[in-house]
Amino acid sequence: MAKSKEIKTIGVLTSGGDASGMNAAIRAVVRKAIANGKKVMGIQRGYAGLLNEEIAEMKSNDVSEIIQRGGTILRTARCEEFRHEEGQAQGAEICKKYGIDGIVVIGGDGSYRGAQALANHGVNTIGVPGTIDLDISCTDYTIGFDTAVNTAMEAIDKIRDTSSSHERCSIIEVMGRNAGYIALWCGVANGAENILLPEKYDYNEQAIIDDIIKSRKYGKTHHLIINAEGIGHSTSMARRIEAATGIETRATILGYMQRGGAPTCKDRYYASMMGAYAADLLCSGKSNRVVAYKAGEFVDYDIDEALAMTKTINEYEYQVAQVL
Questions:
Q1: In this predicted structure, what is the pLDDT of residue 109?
Q2: With 117 labelled, which of 16, 103, 268, 304 sits at a CA distance of 20 to 30 A?
Q3: Residue-averaged pLDDT of the chain
Q4: Annotated catalytic, 133?
């Protein structure tokens, strides 16, 4: 585990897609670091803001009244320049310019690679998992997933009501990039007839069509299909199913509504613990680590080890979803 000299100033940034609970993590980093006698610098717009030197000191009252807000007060952006060595070296130099000895990076696996690069350039760096996709392999929880999946579940319940009233087939596309966790959870929680996951779907659309026809013969008044973003093409799928079955079929893409909104209690609490844990790691001289929640505990891993891990849908959970 990498160790270095005592740090005096901690930076914090959010990177990649926003996720409800990021503000709780920012708040915890700021207040825990200050409680440990450190100065905190907020970096706007992720790595892009670092390169543009959008950096300012944050005091404890700067993070008042934010824990209940969705999104991120530090804002976020993609940064192509930071994918390259030149941009990474420039970012490390800017950290030195502002006296930033360590940085907490809140984001997904792409953000972790940026954190890894900063650590390789001598900046103490800790990653905190912030993504609604739940696709970071080293952790059972990522900031924003709980809010996103509850938002999607509530929306699907409403769509199901009108689907039943009109005796329709409804295809509802949820986010998650190439991971099917939101789709799986909503599929079970909303009682979907079909759940299409990037990790499992065999693209046998005829099997779905046969299932819809069979269900209708048994008196089912509607048919609910949860489709993951990684599969997509929900609108064209709906047209094909309607043509094949003669049953009115509609597609709804929930989209960015899943990213926003007030975070759930779980996202506020877990994000707070992770932010505080990250600040403590830096204050104890640790670097090149990522915070995780594993087997009921908050832990940390070497970032190289974390990025090398793989993750997939739990087979038992998927089988249960198929049965239910």
A1: 87
A2: 268
A3: 95
A4: yes
